[in-house]
Design goal:
Strand order of the largest sheet: 1-3-2
Order of helices and strands: HEHHEEEHEHEHEEE
Strand content: 15-25%
Structural class: alpha+beta
Number of helices: 6
Length: about 180
Amino acid sequence: MIDEKEFKEISHVMSHALRHEPWLYGIELDENGWTSVDDILSVLRVENSKWCGITILTLEGIIELSDKKRFEIYNGCIRALYGHSFFKKLKKQPAPPPAELYHGTSIEAVTWILKDGLLPMKRQYVHLSIDKETAIIVGKRKSMHPVLLRIGSQDAVQHGVDFYQGNDIVWLADYIPKEYISVQ
């Protein structure tokens, strides 16, 4: 049985391997971010000898219990759904987004965003939230008093902006032009 501390440690290693630096762990991701579950299990077993008994069932449990829903397993493969920062851009399929999406940021960034639009910065995609509460929580990573931005996603789609579903609460985009952003 995995305790809460190990749960976080395993999730952290998986995030680093599947979202940021897969080459450090000797794993290869395909164009959609998938790798073999066996490969990630090997990574975990090498990373910490206490994790030698981890199985696909353990990973499925971690994924199911995670509040951020960063990973998915399908047909013997695993991938991170969003948050990638490595150079090889993963392919995503456009999907119709909710009518409005939100982004939390710092007051300092608002001036640049309203001038240049929302850019992915160090990530592959711009990260957006389906609700204001989540966007505020994310914005607090950047500022004690985040600014909430509303994205008119339906208007953006009508003008050629593609959106991609990251998970149930996270949506992604390559770029959001300033015309579809307003301060809440």
